[in-house]
Design brief:
The complex is a heterodimer of chains A (114) and B (111). Chain A has 114 residues and is mainly β. Chain A contains no helices and eleven strands. In chain A, strand 5 and strand 6 form a beta hairpin. The chains are: A mainly beta (114), B mainly beta (111).
């Protein structure tokens, strides 16, 4: 089975622009979570989508949004980029046939805001 | 919400020695505790996990222990090798399947 994939892998933007990142989960997985990873801050939870609905949300401003499509692929969008948004953005998918299930991570998208 | 604390933030050991990383959590509803290893420039990968009805789990050189009463769990790596050098993250997961990660431990194994 193919693993979680993310596109693009690298992105350079300037302040004020917006960006859309994409995540394709493992086939059959219904849950997709997004995380922001910065040095010293670990993995900060952004939001989770399950069956096209946002199920959980972290403490990020409204500039960060996401959605999930019927094929479970997910996108996250950041509007009005700030320098502090520079980070590695990871998505993770899980199957959740019954109850809690392990999350499997994608390779991440490295976003640099200039 | 859940709060996961992880210690130490950095750890250096000699090759062959053991390494122990500890995490505490606050939400008694958390019942799944995975550990991830992230090598430089790569994605986090699950290395071992434990559920709340189990006190200890072992897989070759790695083991995880869980103390639900004290709300802490630990990762033990024995006979460390240079390829064990990486950042390790613990997580506590609640019944809503929300993952709360620790801030990571950078492990360096010195040959």
């Amino acid at each position: 089975k193919a693993g979680v994939t993310q596109t693009p892998r690298y992105l350079i933007k300037t302040r004020g622009q917006q960006v859309t990142l994409s995540c394709s989960p493992i086939s059959g997985h219904r849950s997709v979570s997004w995380y922001q990873q910065t040095p010293g801050q670990g993995l900060q939870f952004l939001f989770e989508y399950f069956s096209e609905t946002q199920r959980n949300k972290g403490n990020f401003p409204g500039r960060f949004s996401g959605r999930q499509f019927s094929n479970s692929r997910s996108e996250m969008n950041v509007s009005t980029l700030e320098l502090g948004d520079s980070a590695l953005y990871l998505c993770a998918s899980s199957l959740e046939l019954a109850g809690i299930d392990t999350q499997y991570f994608g390779p991440g998208t490295r976003l640099t805001v200039l | 919400g859940e709060n996961v604390e992880q210690h130490p933030s950095t750890l250096s050991v000699q090759e062959g020695d053991s390494a122990v990383i500890k995490c505490t959590y606050s939400d008694s509803a958390s019942n799944y505790f995975p550990w991830y290893k992230q090598e430089l420039g790569k994605r986090p990968q699950l290395i071992i996990d434990i559920r709340s009805n189990v006190g200890e789990k072992k897989d070759q050189r790695i083991a995880v222990t869980l103390n639900k009463t004290a709300k802490h769990f630990s990762l033990h790596i024995t006979e460390t090798q240079p390829e064990d050098s990486a950042v390790y993250f613990c997580a506590a997961v609640n019944t809503g399947n929300q993952f709360y990660f620790g801030t990571g431990t950078s492990l360096t194994v010195i040959p």
